[in-house]
Design goal:
The complex is a heterodimer of chains A (197) and B (375). Chain A has 197 residues and is an alpha/beta fold. Chain A contains eight helices and eight strands. Chain A is globular. The mean pLDDT of chain A is 94. In chain B, the strands form four sheets. In chain B, strands 1-4-8-5-11-12-13-14 form an eight-stranded mixed β-sheet, with helices on both faces. In chain B, strands 2-3 form a two-stranded antiparallel sheet. Chain B has ten helices and 14 strands. Classes of the chains: A alpha/beta (197), B alpha/beta (375).
Chain lengths: 197, 375
Amino acid sequence: MKIEFKIIADLLPKNSRVLDIGCGDGILMKLLSDEKNIDVRGLELNEENVETCISKGLSVIEGDAETELGQFPDKSFDYVILSQTLQAFYNPVSVLEHLLRIGKSSIVSIPNFGYWKVRTNLLLFGKMPETKSFPYKWYNTPNLHMCTIEDFYQLCNEKKINMEKIIGVNNDKTSSINNKNIKFKNFFSEIGIFLIS
Amino acid sequence: MNYKTENIKTLTISESIKLDCGKIIKDFPLAYETYGTLNKNKNNAILVFHALTGDQFASGINPITKKEGWWSTLIGANKAIDTNKYFVICANVLGGCMGTLGPKEIDKETNKPYGLNFPVITIRDMVKAQGVLLDHFKIEKLLCALGGSLGGMQLLQFCASFPDRTHSAIPIACSSSNSAQNIALNELARQSIMADPNWNKGAYGETKNSPKNGLAVARMAGHISYLSASGLQEKFGRKLQEKADYEFSFDANFQIESYLRHQGYSFVERFDANSYLYITRAMDYFDLSRQFKNGLSEAFKNQKTKFLVVSFSSDWLYPTKHSKDIVIALNSSGANVAFAEIKTDKGHDSFLVKEIKFLKTIKNFIDSIYEKFKV
């Protein structure tokens, strides 16, 4: 189990209603449903992942979040989760706006392009970074809009999105991020998890 | 199409049912079949709705046609819906021709077959009758209800009419309302039947002839719509039927022609032409959103049922778009819904053939529901 999923689970209250966008094979959904009795739904593009989820009894809709989030009514979920997927959309801002519309709050996690290993990869070796969070070659990566924790922080400020909590993850260690330590955390965190509304 | 009625189980529905057309029917037979055993807690029951030309014999050997039941790929001992574990019920639809009240039955008032004197029925009427069948078995809540095509439409109506009568529902390759193209194809079939001189304005039941040619052509048109272009091409291509070259005639030169003729003319042995008219009419009239002031999402308001909507990528009769519209309506009413589009080239008929991904998805979904609700 990814530590990220445990952090997300801790952020969510029991018995809430949650939508997991890009839910993959449903590991997080199952965790939320089993351990916190959360009424959780998923949206997933990959056909095999959808089949896996349905087999586990999870309510997952096969579909493309880029074009199909419009079907969910305003504030129909307590929380909407987008785990390490924002960077793969053609129009991440539009997806983000849908998230904030559908959920009373949202949790967005991003693989941090500002992590020191990513930076040194490019700086020292002159090659596109390949790390735990970015395991792809430049030619087969699904990531279109990579960003750093600081970039996303800035975007939230520009869009007047309220950041209730920011958590940095590095080697299974978590730490809280705020406007004072962000430069430092942006360097040492592999993943950033934002609770926004 | 004569058969011994001892092979057919019927429930006589004694209560009056008011049909959507305004007429009232009562004391009529509803033919059904069951597979497996209903357990003591009555929580292993699955209701199956059949498609346009189906009947109650979903599994095993059909005692009338001696062929495998139409959903034998899915239902049976050790199959995806395992009848060692589940109790499966399937009823012949109202207006059908396998023992349930339909246009070929004798009208007690005239002592002649109903023919076109049979009231025009709707999918809601069909579902009302099946609700009575559940009462008969004293089943308060089904584990699952499912159906494809017309069966899926009956299921959507069932969920709207009886919001708390099933834990889960699987509408497959269907729509919440027939499209213009659907109606057009049904009209083509009906016109073909009516153009047969033996149809005799529906009163052929009183004569020795029946509109076999018209019904066969209707079935052929139907069959084309159940398959995909690529599926047809792969199976038949331009292959000739036991011939080295063109015959320069209008006999069945191509394999696809021979196939269609076989499908058409074997169908007329087991199906009633007027039933075909009535059932396609019921499909055309189906528009679930019309029954609710605020449209389709209101139809699914307060649903606790867990839905799995399934479509097939190469189905052009009830394409994925139709299923997605159902999903959107369910979502906007806050219902619990999963959706899968099965990638296949087998067209609309995919749910009836051995499509492994489909069978696996249905099995796993129903098993997971059973694990959750068995007590």
